[in-house]
Specification:
Blueprint: H1 2-19, H2 27-34, E1 53-54, E2 57-58, E3 64-65, E4 68-70, H3 87-113, H4 115-122, H5 126-151, H6 156-176, H7 180-208, H8 211-223, H9 231-246, E5 251-252, H10 254-258, H11 261-268, H12 271-278, H13 280-301, H14 303-311, H15 315-320, H16 322-333, H17 336-346, H18 362-367, H19 370-381, H20 388-417, H21 421-466, H22 469-482
Parallel strand pairs: 4-5
Antiparallel strand pairs: 1-2, 3-4
Helix pairs in contact: 1-9, 3-5, 3-7, 3-8, 4-5, 5-7, 5-21, 6-7, 7-8, 7-21, 8-16, 8-17, 8-20, 12-13, 12-21, 13-20, 13-21, 13-22, 16-20, 19-20, 19-21, 20-21
Length: about 500
């Protein structure tokens, strides 16, 4: 477990500082050295002076409060802060996280492709077999209630690690169960333990990258056992080691002093529900994404009708048509460098500058008009007399639009809620996936009842209604954030 290695290296580094304290090496040299190491593990990440003890009190660069030494980051360049880790270290974390997102997200899509085969094996209808996918989505939605609070209490790494372990167990159970009921139960828990990775991954991006660089990194995460990146927890580790090395119990951190583990869980546990019901930003944006996911999963549930029945494709070829959506998402991801350059220009190339959250909405504002276009295009271009490439082109545009709106929405929440970004993201995940699970059950009868053309026309009409939403949010977002006790202003 990489976080355990981090923890032990931090302990060893502080012990080395204590042993060489009399030599008083340059703190700036230690700062320069640590930034070249992976996750700041092998250099002296803390000034030797922090270990000094005097009869009348203790010295700390972060200040002293009521005879306590409050340990915090040592300025903007503190190597303890994940945003100051080497680019190689952060890239490794993002690569691993992207792989986890891909694998656990694919667990939902892969099952839907085997709908007919699974329904025949278990002796149930295809509509009943859709319950398997619906339960996976319900699992993600319900698990998000716990993922955000846990990650802000025990850290990102344990949340990812434990949930992924149980995810693998239930994937195995889903594959080996001989009964339909067993499959449905296992699929729910597959979703439940996928929720940590799928709901709070954006907070890991925020932990490691400053606002401008997030314009480049987050589209890559959206397209697709990491180190601990939650800074308040890293400071807690530092406090534990300082207490053990010096024997002084007065070292404390703001996060550690706030409450015990159980009390912190009691405090943050209800926050996802509170964010959903009382936070204007989450409530409004969540409602928009809920309707968007109704479109998304109604659209995806119709691939059998759109491609298999219209063009006579096999199950394998029908599944490969999903690649057109992935290609559209990839195309948007390739635009990430331009978003980064735009953000740099917006901040006048000042390092570490903050960005107004509303700036993040521009990809959604630009892409939103293409959503109804893609649905109407597919609905009325999906005929056996028209080339299949026309339908694949519509899916390409759909994939590009969906990822643009997803990235804009998540970056907006991250910038708006700061340290509570994981809670905000989890709140959005709850409403999206619970509604999506219900739509999976309703979509197939809808395609069978009114046909592909009119189903997609109905979805296109809903998309037209949603068309101005990103622009309205861009206009009114600041006012909504001002009503929130949790939303922060840029730069705080």
């Amino acid at each position: 477990m990489w976080s355990y290695i981090q923890y032990r290296r931090m302990e060893r580094d502080l012990e080395n500082v204590a042993k060489r304290n009399s030599e008083a090496p340059s703190y700036q040299n230690a700062q320069d050295a640590v930034l070249d190491d992976v996750e700041g593990a092998r250099a002296e990440p803390f000034p030797p002076g922090i270990l000094e003890s005097k009869e009348n009190g203790h010295r700390s660069t972060t200040g002293q409060r009521r005879n306590k030494i409050v340990v915090d980051v040592e300025g903007d360049h503190d190597p303890l802060d994940p945003r100051n880790w080497s680019l190689v270290a952060r890239s490794k974390n993002i690569a691993i996280l992207s792989f986890l997102i891909f694998v656990q997200g694919w667990a939902g899509a892969a099952e839907s492709m085997a709908n007919k085969t699974a329904s025949e094996e278990f002796g149930v209808s295809q509509v009943a077999e859709n319950l398997s996918t619906a339960m996976y989505l319900f699992g993600i939605g319900s698990g998000a209630f716990f993922a955000g609070p846990l990650s802000e209490t025990v850290g990102r790494n344990p949340t990812y690690l434990v949930s992924t372990f149980f995810f693998l167990l239930f994937v195995l159970g889903s594959a080996l169960t001989p009964t339909f009921g067993g499959q449905v139960v296992c699929r729910y828990f597959v979703g439940l333990f996928s929720s940590a990775t799928l709901s709070i991954n954006g907070s890991s991006v925020r932990d490691q990258f400053r606002p401008v660089k997030r314009a480049f990194v987050f589209p890559i995460i959206a397209w697709a056992n990491v180190a601990e990146t939650y800074l308040p927890l890293l400071i807690d580790w530092k406090v534990r080691h300082l207490r053990r090395i010096t024997g002084d119990r007065r070292y404390v951190s703001k996060h550690g002093e706030s409450a015990s583990l159980i009390r912190r869980l009691r405090h943050v546990g209800p926050l996802p529900a509170r964010f959903l019901t009382r936070e204007p930003v989450v409530a409004v944006l969540g409602g928009y994404l809920m309707l968007l996911y109704i479109l998304l999963f109604s659209f995806l549930s119709g691939f059998d009708y759109i491609f298999k029945e219209t063009y006579g494709l096999t199950n394998g070829l029908t599944g490969s048509c999903f690649a057109s959506i992935a290609a559209g998402a990839t195309f948007f991801t390739l635009l990430a460098p331009s978003f980064y350059s735009w953000a740099r220009w917006k901040t006048e190339y000042v390092r570490g500058s903050s960005i107004e959250p509303e700036f993040r909405l521009w990809p959604a504002i630009i892409a939103a008009p293409l959503l109804p276009v893609s649905l109407f295009w597919l609905g009325w271009g999906n005929q056996d007399t028209i080339s299949i490439w026309s339908s694949l082109g519509a899916c390409f545009v759909f994939g590009m639009v969906i990822i643009a709106i997803y990235v804009s929405s998540y970056e907006y929440i991250i910038d708006s809620y700061g340290d509570h970004a994981a809670i905000g993201l989890a709140s959005l995940t709850i409403i999206r996936y619970l509604v999506a699970g219900g739509m999976v059950m309703a979509a197939r009868p809808m395609y069978g009842g009114i046909g592909t053309h009119w189903t997609l026309t109905l979805l296109g009409c809903i998309a037209v209604v949603l068309l101005p939403a990103p622009l309205v949010f861009w206009k009114c977002g600041r006012q909504l954030r001002s009503r929130s006790p949790y939303a922060k202003s840029p730069g705080t």
